Amino acid sequence: MADVTGRRVVISHASEIWPEPCGAGRARLCIPLREARREARRRKPILRKVVYDFDLLGQARNAEVAATPLDKLTYVVFDTETTGLLPSEDEIAQIAAVRIVNGRRVETEVFDTLVNPGRRIPPGSTEVHGISDAMVVDAPGIVEVGRRFLNSSKGR
After folding, report:
1. What is the pLDDT of residues 20-52, one digit of tens each?
2. Per the confidence metrics, is the pTM higher than 0.85?
3. In 10 A of CB 140, how many CB atoms?
4. C-alpha–C-alpha distance, residues 19 and 140, integer Å
C-alpha cells in the first residue's frame, strides 16, 4: 500500500480536489466521488452455455502480432454492465476500459462511466452488478458515452 497516494486516488476516481474553509482557521479537502455501489447479496450464478464467436479467430491476422506475448503489446480491455442478459432487449448501464501497454495498466488512460439505459434496471440485475436506477438517473445516454469512448481512444 506504500504506492497509494492522494494523487492516485483522485486520478483513479476521475475526480478533483480542493480546499474549503470551515471556520476557525481550519479547512477541509473536498474530493467529490460518485455514489459507491452498495454491497448486495449476490444471487447464485446463472448456469448457461458459454458462446464464443470462433469466426473471429479465423479472420486474417498479422502473424507477428499473433505470436507476440501480451506483455509486449498495447491494447484496451473493456467491460460493460447491462440491464439484463438478452442483448436484443437490454441496454448498457456502465462501460469501463483500461489501456494496457507492455503488460501494465496506464493509470491516466482509464474510461469508466455509468450510462443511463433509458429504461429501468431490474432488481435482479442490480443484485448482480450493483448499479441501481438512482445511480444512472443523471448519467448520459449511450450515444454520448459511445462518442466519448470513441474520442478517448483516438490517436492511440
Report:
1. 988 888 999 888 877 666 666 666 665 655 555
2. no
3. 15
4. 29
